[in-house]
Each structure stands twice: as C-alpha cells, then as structure tokens.
Amino acid sequence: MTSSMETVPVRYARWDGVGSPFRVVCADTPLVPGPGALLVRIDLATVCGSDLHTVGGHRPSPVPALLGHEQVGTVLGVGAGGVRCVDGTPVVPGMRVVWSVTASCGSCERCDRGLPQKCLRLRKYGHEPLVESAPLTGGFATHCVVLPGTAVVAVPADLPDEVASPASCATATVAAALAVAGPLAGRRVLVTGAGMLGLTATAMAATAGAHVEAVDPDPVRRAQALAFGAAGAHAATTAAAATAADAATNTTNITADGIREFDVALEFSGQATAVQACLDSLTVGGTAVLVGSVSPGAPASLDPERVVRGLHTVIGVHNYRPADLATAVRFLADHHRTFPFADLVGGTYELDRVDAALTAARTAAAPRQAVAPRV
C-alpha cells in the first residue's frame, strides 16, 4: 500500500528568461498528488514552436518558468477522488497518457458556454510562473503534476512516444481547426504553412477525402506536404510571387494550375501574407480557419463586401476542447503508419541539454526535437 507521505525524486529544467540557459533543478514531490490530480512520469517531450518564441523573447512569458507542453508519460499516482479520461475510462497507475495544454475550472461563464479552452481561470502547462514549492507544471521535466480540469487521453501501446507527444498541442489544435471547418470530403482545401500543424492538417484533411494544396516557402516542407497527402505543394499562392521559386523547384503555382478558389483555407504560419491569401482564396460559401496568428504581427485586409457576397466564414482557433485531444490520439493511432509522423521528430536530448534541443529545433528539417528526461 502506498503511503500518502511517500515522495519521488524529480528534476526539471528551469528557465530564467531571455538569454539565460536552462538550469536543471532537483527536488522531491509526493507520489500521491492532491485531489483530482495525477503524478505522471514524462517519457518524452517535444519542443513546440511556441517554446522557441518564448525563449527568443517573441511572446510574453512569466519568469522563471518551466517550459514545454507537448509530452507523453506514464501515470505514477492518482489523487483522491480519482481522474477519468475524456472517454470516461478511470485513470490508473501504469496507464500511458497525454494531457491537454490547458486546465479549466469547469464552472466559470466561459466553461458554461462550452469554451473551456478559454476559461477565465485557465492554467496552461509550460506557460505558468514557476513556484518552487509546486514546480511541475511543464514538459521539460522528469514528472508533471496534471491538475484537476485537465483533459486526459490514454495512449495505445503501439503508438510510439515521438508520435504521441505532439498530440497535446499540435495534433489536437489541428483537430480543433478541422472540427470548425465543416465536412471535408470532396472539398478543396488550402493549407498555408507546412510545419508540424500544417503537415498534420494536410494528412487529416486528405484522409477525410479532401483535395489538399499546401503552401510553404521551404522546399523541404513542400516535399513533406506531398508525403502527408497533399495533391500539390507550392511556394506561394500568387503567380507573381511564385514564378521564380516554382521554376527553380519544379512545382506548379496554384493560380497557374487552375485551382483558384478553395472551400476551406487553413492558416498555420501566422504570416500576414498567408492570412491574406487564405481570405482571398475562398469560393462562395468558403471558410477560412486562422490558427497561426498567436503573436502580434502585420494586419491583413478584409473586404467586407466580398465576405458578405461570398457568404464567407472566418473563424479563429486557439487552444482546443477535450474532444479534440481524443480525436488527435485516435487519428495518430489509426494513421501513423500511413503517414511518416515519426520522421517529424528528430534528436533525443536529455534534460540537461534542453538548450541544445531548442537550438536544433530552429534549424532542423524535422519540425520537432525530442527531450527524453532521465531521473
């Protein structure tokens, strides 16, 4: 029988602000966490683009902090009252899980409106101020305390860690974007930005029966988009911008090949020019889903007459609902052998080399770099 006073040794990578290296800190934490919480051993974490933005000073963050919010782990302890997965399955020690990037209160006005991802008392893993008495709120650590109000999904045994880890941010966010985009079978879908989210969206939309065209200035990412189900991959969405790049890389411009309008445009790059391209590409009744614009940037132009006459819908997606995380894991479990998801994660850095993992993430062809904590 486990004693409520039993503790386990833990380590975490403390970040002290822009320009400071990560520093590994040792501590102890109770094996049995508080009511409704979980203690999870982190088996693998991946470096997300927002981690890079935080460390580079391009997005506000509390300091000090424990970063990282894409991870997969094994449950060690369950708090009083128990915890259930999104599908209702009780969480038990030994279960392999991923968990949402957010913890919601479940009772505020936004939660009541079905917007738990924008809870008024929201807490976000990897984005909270570091409290030394309870530091385990991020992925760059040997363990995480998963708080009450966090969506938890069990991970099938045959789903590799490097495929499962991004589910808690990248894959679930894409699932949220496609959920609001409407039915995709037989529709023309534009994906701008072929990073981790864009490649995942390409695979999901193609699997749903859509004709997908991906846009990214990077030729490596364009090649990856084709491997993830895109019917075409392009350097730009206008003939003027694409002529030189497409001629050099043997790709066909979207305008030139006759695909001028799209039923759905999914934007993941956060670039104003890509946002504009998505808005301008919509056919009558089309929907633009904007996901990548999570930092201040140049504005895009919206023609209200075109929106009105075109019956256009423009939707923003930020964070996601619990059901989206379940969809993400299910999709990866069903299709990780069809699409090369494992190839999107490179490196395996131990906890004392988080700085090296972030450096590699800025330049590597793989959209994610892995951190494998060791006790």
UniProtKB/TrEMBL annotation:
Family named by the database record: Belongs to the zinc-containing alcohol dehydrogenase family.
Lineage: Bacteria, Bacillati, Actinomycetota, Actinomycetes, Catenulisporales
Keywords: Metal-binding, NAD, Oxidoreductase, Zinc
Cofactor field: Zn(2+)
Occurrences of domain Alcohol dehydrogenase-like N-terminal (ranges): 34-156
EC number, UniProt record: 1.1.1.1
Residues covered by the Alcohol dehydrogenase-like C-terminal domain: 197-333
Protein name as annotated: alcohol dehydrogenase
The protein's enzyme class: oxidoreductase
